[in-house]
Amino acid sequence: xxxxxxxxxxxxxxxxxxxxxxxxxxxxxxxxxxxxxxxxxxxxxxxxxxxxxxxxxxxxxxxxxxxxxxxxxxxxxxxxxxxxxxxxxxxxxxxxxxxxxxxxxxxxxxxxxxxxxxxxxxxxxxxxxxxxxxxxxxxxxxxxxxxxxxxxxxxxxxxxxxxxxxxxxxxxxxxxxxxxxxxxxxxxxxxxxxxxxxxxxxxxxxxxxxxxxxxxxxxxxxxx
Length: 224
Fold this sequence. Notes:
It comes from Oceanithermus desulfurans NBRC 100063. This protein is an alpha/beta fold. The chain is 38% helix and 13% strand.
């Protein structure tokens, strides 16, 4: 963690515990209480980790083979239009290689002139790109990719058509959106990826019980 630890006064044990909480999805508020450090310190530590992850994502090789792409809109529930074009929300574009990595980034809009340069830079030419029927993807029909359009109103049962879906990237974006919304509404629910019984411990103001035994803090400040 060179971005943060170079000037950090945190002990190695506390840095490792914060890293565990970051991976588990613990909020900065709960992690600060669990590790006994200032919340702003946790915020800086988490930000450094996210910076490293973003930098590594940019260095990663382009996706290839069968790639699913889709956009989603983050920002909680609001009155008015939902989905594409919803006001007050941040559009996020996602690309998923089937059986492999995911690449996501916020975008200013979902127009073809915004989406196409991202696809061209993150996907190897001659790959198969699966999309829904949104008009912004029409340009893929005359590109260096093999475009497979999904008709959500039609069910494919067998053969080659059975591959025509974007379930992977849709599920990834929806799960990310749900987790983000729940954490913003209920900061105490710090371990969303973990079983419900662990999250309930946080709601009862007993964050130590929210962690599985393997990562609970020991009596002497180490990892039990």
